[in-house]
Amino acid sequence: MPPRSHSPSSISLGMSEAQLVSSPQFSPPKFSPFFHPFGEIRTLNSVRELHAQIIKMPKKRNLVTMDGSMMRNYLQFGDFESATKVFFVGFARNYLLWNSFIEEFASFGGDSHEILAVFKELHDKGVKFDSKALTVVLKICLALMELWLGMEVHACLVKRGFHVDVHLSCALINLYEKYLGIDGANQVFDETPLQEDFLWNTIVMANLRSEKWEDALELFRRMQSASAKATDGTIVKLLQACGKLRALNEGKQIHGYVIRFGRVSNTSICNSIVSMYSRNNRLELARVAFDSTEDHNSASWNSIISSYAVNDCLNGAWDLLQEMESSGGSYENVLTNFRSLQSAGFKPDSCSITSALQAVIGLGCFNLGKEIHGYIMRSKLEYDVYVCTSLVDKYIKNDCLDKAEVVFHHTKNKNICAWNSLISGYTYKGLFDNAEKLLNQMKEEGIKPDLVTWNSLVSGYSMSGRSEEALAVINRIKSLGLTPNVVSWTAMISGCCQNENYMDALQFFSQMQEENVKPNSTTICTLLRACAGSSLLKIGEEIHCFSMRHGFLDDIYIATALIDMYGKGGKLKVAHEVFRNIKEKTLPCWNCMMMGYAIYGHGEEVFTLFDEMRKTGVRPDAITFTALLSGCKNSGLVMDGWKYFDSMKTDYNINPTIEHYSCMVDLLGKAGFLDEALDFIHAVPQKADASIWGAVLAACRLHKDIKIAEIAARNLLRLEPYNSANYALMMNIYSTFDRWGDVERLKESMTALGVKIPNVWSWIQVKQTIHVFSTEGKSHPEEGEIYFELYQLISEIKKLGYVLDINCVHQNIDDSEKEKVLLSHTEKLAMTYGLMKTKGGSPIRVVKNTRICHDCHTTAKYISLARNREIFLRDGGRFHHFMNGECSCKDRW
Ligand SMILES: [Zn+2]
Ligand SMILES: [Zn+2]
Question: Between residues 156 and 695, which one has the greater pLDDT?
Fold first, then answer.
């Protein structure tokens, strides 16, 4: 079965980075994050000479990069003054670069006073700074307590009638608050004409820091009438103030605000509401607020439990502790709360001991365990079967089978739960012999295995790809007079999906129904996820029909899985229909729908959905921003990309992950801002991974930039030396520059490293059959007819202007040979077969395991035009939707 899941960058060719870039003797230089475009620099004088040369040079496009490396050169030689000058009089910068400069400066041992000295010198000479530079200067003034310089900057701004932007204004407020007290800060605020959200929040926080509680609450009221939005941080602090002040009415008002603006999904806000009510001695209101919170994290459990404990409701606190434990609360918290309750006079029983013990094992802190063990001994609880069962269970969950065995064999009067725990531990690990042995032992001791016992065997066999043995267990269940239930069958199905055995999964699905076992939502979701992951849209549609007939569509998980499947399959209209029909849309529904639009380059639709979602009060998470940024990336919307990237942290306090950075690099690179993309990578706090460098390399192919391509390839081949796709991409770039020597060297290095070129395949589903076209193995039985049709197609589209792109073949052979190679590309064959076998009007859906080549991409565009067909092609990197001679990727891939 061909549909193996693959990540975009996981397919390719291998050798060391040194071999790629230069001769085999070349030893890789030590890389600082900033590369040196001018080779190695050994002395400060050579830095200065180089700098002089650059200044004399006519303007070149990668000035930002040059500034960056000059700045770094100066820093490395300890010339902090020159480094600062480069930065101050350098070129367009943003806050990101400023912050990274300050960090670099400090990491080389620079003293921030020097930055201020340089600033003063330039300022006296009459150099004008932009608001970004001034903001940074003010921030340094604040940190170094240079109040007078800060005031001078302010006076100068006023004199010049300088437009004070929000950041500058905030920096001023913070400075004044610290040195002249809150009144000075309030004055700056009142004098700022543009009172944006950010500024309101700053001033409220400043007043709270200065313990001006009433003033802060008053400002919050004014802020609301100005329709400014309070950040989560501000709301939390205000609520804390209401707790401290015992200001119940104000607290209730803020609670109202939180409800009105849909901020209830924020756990830290909810926790503050709980504490606020508790501090106002309104335990019942605290409990209501707690119960209405969707996700309880450890802080929320802490706040409610301590509310009960503080208000002398120990039993209530204990009940909550139990609830917390069973809902998966953190063990540390269970223990902390356990101890504090004990010291408050609570006497634990066998049940509470179990919770505490589970916490100890969960934490793996066996010293703490001794403490509790001592208690067990004193309380004569040692042989309590429940304590032991939970111990066995927890050891297994913590991957300590041997410890679980010890406890198990020392337990007297074991109940069936204990037996089942250990058996499932064995099957999960694939230790089927041990499991069977235990099963026999269990029977000898007179305990009859139940369905739970058998199902753990079914699941174990099925997950390790041994579906025949799993089926044998199903038959064993039947022979014992028991009936396999939905759990047994779902285990069968999910094991098959896990092992990409989709046909068997479907087979078991129908067998289960024949045996009158009703599937549940987990069964359906498992199948739908498998269809989405492998682009099996036809089967997915059948399961959709099934869910409709059996009334599963109200199930939110199934609806979400449907959106995901149709979205990935390019049936956006159907996805949207499912989406629209959901009454209470959850965050995953929104995310899946946005992602569906994003992958096919419908950026605007993603943004519209995002706005709609915010209006309904659903709060975005990191996945939402991945969808937004992917939307920008696939539609080439650079400005929107920056907007969402910035908003993520400032408005929602979500830290960007490597995925988000990778989207941004891809976006900048594809749009042709390769230097900016490099700058961005240097400013990323995490180490750039293969997805980031892969995006740069692909962008270099698009914009034919061989210099940056070599930098990207060097990094990429260091991170993924065995990924042949990277080599293929670099060879492609070399071949467009006719650098066949380099292509050959790459190939040799691949051979030397033993990098395998994977089998390339494309497939298409026609009716119930999947037709695979592969570079290896058997050829398709109708190959002759397919080629005949393909040649006709090609001559047809040549009349429309199509020209074969022989640059896509990186073999140094003559052009007619290259043409032959191009025509044998698997995606061309699959598309042609689709045209032959499907009716006009129905879209063609092809899946390919590696990146589509330039020529096939062009061919697909022309075919969509000539034959008036939609073509969906999912390749190793992304999704393409061809229609009327164009592709949804707008030729950026
Ligand atoms: Zn091709
Ligand atoms: Zn495309």
Answer: 695
Residue 597 has pLDDT above 50, yes or no: yes
Separation of alpha carbons 23 and 43, rounded Å: 27
In 3D space, the residue among 7, 17, 19, 18 whose CA is nearest the CA of residue 748 turns out to be 19
Question: Which of 268-272, 502-506, 614-618, 835-839 is predicted least confidently?
Answer: 502-506
Segments in 445-501 forming alpha helices (H): 451-463, 467-479, 486-498
Q: Which two tokens stand for residue 580?
A: 């629209």
Beta-strand pair 844-848/886-887: unpaired
Q: What is the pLDDT of residue 5?
A: 35
**If you average pLDDT over every residue of the chain, what do you get?**
80
pLDDT of residue 862: 95
**Residues β-bridged to residue 848:** 762
For ligand 1, the distance from its centroid to the CA atom of residue 733, given in whole angstroms, is 15
HSE-CB of 622 using CA atoms within 13 angstroms: 9
Distance from chain centroid for Cα 267: 20
What are the helix (H) ranges across 429-571?
432-444, 451-463, 467-479, 486-498, 502-514, 521-533, 537-549, 556-568
Residue 369 lies in a domain: no
| CA–CA separation, 692 and 660 (whole Å) | 10
Distance (Å) of CA 874 to CA 3, 113, 372, 570: 12, 55, 57, 10
Q: Under 8 Å CB-to-CB from 728, ≥6 apart: which residues?
A: 12, 13, 757, 810, 850, 851
Res 712: pLDDT: 94
Which ligand is nearest to the Cα of residue 875, counting in written order? Answer: 2
Task: Output the pTM of the full model.
Answer: 0.56
CA distance 551 to 210: 59
User: What would the two tokens of residue 17 be?
Assistant: 């980075």
Which amino acid, residue 598? A
Counting ligands in written order, the one closest to the CA of 732 is 1
- Tokens 């390399």 found at: 697
CB crowding 566-576: b at 16 or more within 10 Å, else e: bbbbbbbebbb
Position 39: which residue type? G
Mean pLDDT in residue range 689-704: 92
d(CA 750, CA 164): 57
Closest ligand (CA of 860): 2
Number of domains into which the chain is organized: 1
Sign of CA dihedral 227, 231, 237, 239: positive
**Domain-embedded: residue 405:** no
- pLDDT for residue 385: 66
Are residues 293 and 267 in contact, defined by beta-carbon separation less than 8 angstroms? Answer: yes
Tell me how far the alpha carbon of residue 814 lies from the centroid of ligand 2, in angstroms. Answer: 28
The Å distance, Cα 802 to ligand 1 centre, comes to 14
Does any domain span residue 813? yes
**In whole angstroms, what is the distance from residue 201 CA to residue 68 CA?**
34
Pairing of strands 769-774, 844-848: unpaired
Distance 854 CA to ligand 1 centre (A): 6
d(Cα 48, Cα 28) in Å, to the nearest integer?
A: 26
With left for phi above 0 and alpha for psi between -120 and 50, is residue 51 left, alpha or beta?
alpha
448, with CB counted inside 10 A (0-12, 13-18, 19+), is exposed
Nearest ligand to the C-alpha atom of residue 773: 1
| Separation of CA 892 and ligand 2 centre (Å) | 7
834 within a domain of the structure (yes/no): yes
CA–CA gap between residue 275 and residue 272 (Å, rounded) = 5
Residue 22 confidence class, pLDDT cut points 50, 70, 90? very low
3-state secondary structure of 844: strand
Ligand 1 centroid–CA 857 distance in Å is 7
Using the mean position of ligand 1's atoms as its centre, give its distance from the Cα of residue 64 in Å. Answer: 37
pLDDT tier at 604, thresholds 50, 70, 90: very high
Domain that holds residue 789: 761-887
